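Researcher: We plan to redesign the surface later, but first we want a full-length starting point. Tokens attached.
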């Protein structure tokens, strides 16, 4: 969801680098986790881009806030929750999917999702090693969560070394 970057001011607020595209995750009253500890958002305002100034209930001083620096913020989200847009996916839904060619032949497994500047990138473990596939429709024409598979375009060099 995000990472605490630094303390902000003297009243316990922190600057958070948000990794979420769901703004409601940081709405006042939202419950987040830092390790085993639960925190409740008391206030939030944008600094522009992905940075937010967040105040948490019970975090009252700069010293309290500085103790949170570098902490990863997590949200408790039901496993079956999906984004509203049918063409969006949570990373946790993609990791573990079988990567297949358009004819249905399995070629590997999605092991991670990287978030690049231009687009997300699927990390696919194949027999030839790890492959990075930009998560764009031209290269990943379909994702079927019910069948636990993702279709990868059959282009030379994408999933295996290009033939010489």
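Model: Full-length starting sequence:
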């Amino acid at each position: 969801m995000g990472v605490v970057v630094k303390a902000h001011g003297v009243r316990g607020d922190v600057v958070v680098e948000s990794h979420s595209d769901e703004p409601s995750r940081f709405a006042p009253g939202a419950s987040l986790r830092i390790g085993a500890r639960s925190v409740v958002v008391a206030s939030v305002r944008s600094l522009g881009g992905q940075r937010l100034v967040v105040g948490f209930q019970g975090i009252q001083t700069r010293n309290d806030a500085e103790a949170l620096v570098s902490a990863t913020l997590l949200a408790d989200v039901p496993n079956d929750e999906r984004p509203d847009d049918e063409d969006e996916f949570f990373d946790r839904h993609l990791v573990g999917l079988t990567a297949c060619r358009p004819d249905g032949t399995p070629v590997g497994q999605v092991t991670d999702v990287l978030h690049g500047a231009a687009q997300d990138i699927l990390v696919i473990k194949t027999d030839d090693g790890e492959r990075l596939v930009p998560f764009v429709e031209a290269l990943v024409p379909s994702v079927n969560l019910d069948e636990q598979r993702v279709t990868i375009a059959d282009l030379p060099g994408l999933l295996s070394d290009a033939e010489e």
